[in-house]
Amino acid sequence: MLRLLSIEFHKIKHNRASKVLSIIYFVLLTSIALIAAIKFDIGPVKFHLAEQGIFNFPYIWHFNSYMASIFKFFLLLVIVSMMANEYSYKTLKQNLIDGLSKKEFILSKFYTVLVFALTSTVFVFIVSLVLGLIYSDYNEFAIISSDLEYMLAFFVKLVGFFSFGLFLGILIKRSAFAVAAMLVWFFIESMLKGYLFWSFKDVSNTTESVNNIMQFLPLEAMTNLIKEPFTRLGAVRSVANQIGENLSKDFSVQFTDIIIVSVWTAIFIYLSYVLLKKRDL
Q1: How far is CA 137 from each of CA 32, 55, 134, rounded to the nearest angstrom?
Q2: C-beta separation of 123 from 71 below 8 A
Q3: How many CB atoms sit inside 10 A of residue 269's CB?
């Protein structure tokens, strides 16, 4: 494993675009902390976002993992460009000539995906812990350690997303087209969801029926891992109650979603291997 990882990181180390994108990604993750500096002072009205509870334990695990997952596209570019470069610079063929099997090649890419996802998760965990210790109103260990399943969901989401990108990179061989294919698949899922809502419009539990179908599609399953955290805020709920809106929603991480994304991850890695095995290099 270490040998395969050393080969991959040697390639990334000598690829300027990958290094720049990786740095931008981790800078953006750190920028979550800048949310604490958002203040509005308009006459007697003083608004400090950090005081609204977004950095309170355990809510911060949910909020930061959701916000951090928005930036995953930067590492996706690293993954797909990593595969595109293998074909452009003939390094894939050279690795195989040097004795690396196709299985080892795919494993080296998957190990890189795991390292990227794990590093991101640890990074977000540390940033969240520091912000929480500074701004949270609750610092008891039991409260701090609750809802940590959002970190697991974040890790699983990144592994699944990057594995999808890896598969598209191998399938299409060009980074720009691989990213475009990801966007096309997103639009396909979105259109299917819209069609299902239209088809089930006369059903009493339309949303539930549609979600029961859509939850098995890859990008939708990844989205379901970490649901939007904004309507979970006490301030938002208070306003909603005053205007008669019901924001009751299950925000927890579902084990079913973790299983579905994990299965898709295995499928993407297996298909990547099958493609590479059958392809004439």
Answers
A1: 19, 9, 9
A2: no
A3: 20
Whether 87 and 168 have beta carbons less than 8 Å apart is answered as no
Question: What DSSP string describes 163-200?
Answer: HHHHHHHHHH--HHHHHHHHHHHHHHHHHHHHHHHHHT
Alpha-carbon distances of 39 from 49, 126, 147, rounded to whole Å: 6, 24, 28
What is the average per-residue pLDDT within 40-65?
Answer: 75
Handedness of CA 77, 78, 83, 85 (dihedral sign): positive
Residue percentage of the chain with pLDDT more than 90: 42
CB atoms within 10 A of CB 90: 12
Contact 229, 59 (CB under 8 A): yes
For 239, how many CA atoms within 13 A lie in the half-sphere containing its CB?
Answer: 6
Q: How far apart are CA 117 and CA 135, in angstroms?
A: 27
Summarised one tens digit per residue, pLDDT across range 129-167 is 998 998 888 889 999 999 999 999 999 999 999 999 999
CA 106 to chain centre: 21
Which element (helix H / strand E) includes 83?
A: helix 72-88
* Cβ contact 166:113 at 8 Å: yes
Q: Hey, how many other C-beta atoms are within 10 angstroms of the C-beta on 196?
A: 17
- Burial zone of 246 (CB within 10 Å; 0-12 exposed, 13-18 middle, 19+ buried): exposed
Burial of 148 (0-12, 13-18, 19+ CB in 10 A): middle
